[in-house]
Amino acid sequence: MRSWAFTGPTAMGLPATTTAAAPTATFASPVPDDGEYILSIRDHLGQGGVDYAYRIEVTPIVPALTLGLPERAQYVDTTLPVPQGNRLAALVSAQRVDFGGDVQLNFKDLPPGISVETIPMAANRTDVPVLFTAVDGAALGREPGRSRRRRSERKSSR
User: Fold this and answer.
1) Can you spell out the DSSP letters for 38-101?
2) Residues in Cβ contact with 50 at an 8 Å cutoff, skipping those fewer than 6 apart
3) Contacts of 5 (CB under 8 A, 6+ apart)
4) How far is residue 29 from each of residues 8, 13, 120, measured CA to CA in Å?
């Protein structure tokens, strides 16, 4: 295991460790101020020095959101056929990375005669029910609409 200590003008220490399952040590932290910082790396025995080689990568934290539908059959795209004059309910899941807060789903370019009802996905939830309704004369065989999502709050989760 390697332990990392990140110290700077505010003398904050952020340990990060590795395991056999995750051999790459990572940590995420906002840098509070411009300035020079020291990153010290030691292996699990507390060793380190000029004879040791480590790779360091510094990247910005980028929020990401992945939406999904429950898989009904492996390797088969999930489709949502809404019968004319009827409804179909689906549970849409979301995987948030590096942000928190509510997520509001908006559906764009739905086929004529199809409407959607949903509620905001609360910050502590990973799924939300969505109700699709087709009027009696809804178009048949159209391409599905595109979903758009909007984060209500942008907060780093690390």
Assistant:
1) EEEEE-TTS--STT------------EEEEE---SSTTS-------TTEEEEEEEEEEEES-BS
2) none
3) 13, 14, 15, 39, 40
4) 12, 11, 29
- pLDDT single digits (tens) 109-137: 888 899 999 999 999 999 999 999 999 98
DSSP class of residue 113 equals T
The total of other beta-carbon atoms located within 10 Å of residue 123's CB is 14
How far apart CA 98 and CA 65 sit, in angstroms, is 9
- Measured in whole angstroms, the distance separating CA 143 from the mean position of its chain's CA atoms is 26
The tokens for 50 are 């000029």
- pTM over 0.85? The answer is no
64-151 to CATH, choices 2.30.30, 3.40.30, 3.10.590, 2.60.40: 2.60.40
